[in-house]
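This protein record is not my work; I was only asked to verify it. Would you go through it and say whether the fold makes sense for this chain? Here is the record exactly as it was handed to me.
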Amino acid sequence: MKLFFKIIVFFLLSAQIPFAFSASLESHQNLKAAAHAFLTTQLEGKKVDFNIQIQNIDQRLKLRKCPVDVGIKLMQAHVKPGKNTLNVECNSDTPWRIFMRAQVKLFTHLVVSKRPLNRGHLIQENDIQLIRTELTGRQSAYLPRTDQAVGYIVNRRVKAGDIISVNNLSKPLLIKKGDSVTILAKNEDFQISMKGIALMAGSYGDKIKVKNIKTKKVVQGIIIDAQTIEVAL
């Protein structure tokens, strides 16, 4: 009977050893959760949707349970679409450090062409739409609002479904060199207009040189429409 009792005690104690050893180690799942929370905090507040996948930690890696909060930081300046590396470390009397990989997908709504647009086409509101798009691997400056494309000219042919890039667009030329224009000189209390000749070509908002026909004086002004250049008094 005593022998049987000793055997039972032995098995009970043996079963507790792995449990005690396991309790003294960091949970890989908890570390993954902490990494996910860290990246989520970094991305919150940005005008993008995101998806985060944390790479599994090698099961053979045994890490002592950290008595303080585990420190997590990026190995680059900011979270980027695609692969990100995290430095995860325990700053205690028995420190350790590992590197974890995370795959991040960023999504936002970008301006996309509804139909084929030929080079030189002046974009109208019904030419484009916003579509949720993954940003991973995209390098160009894309447009998140349709008003950023309306009124611009397409530099090259665009297919239906193509994302509209800033590099695809240019401002329409409103005034050509030699055009007759109205020079509008104004301040808060006073304005006067006079006839002039454009000495440069330009688009809306461009600053160009213009000559006053009467005085022959050359001034600089901002194009506000196809016939008018505004000069500050």
Summary: Confidence is low (pLDDT under 50) at residues 3-21. Residues 2-23 form the longest helix (22 residues). The first strand starts at residue 49 and ends at 54. The chain is about 15% helix and 35% strand.
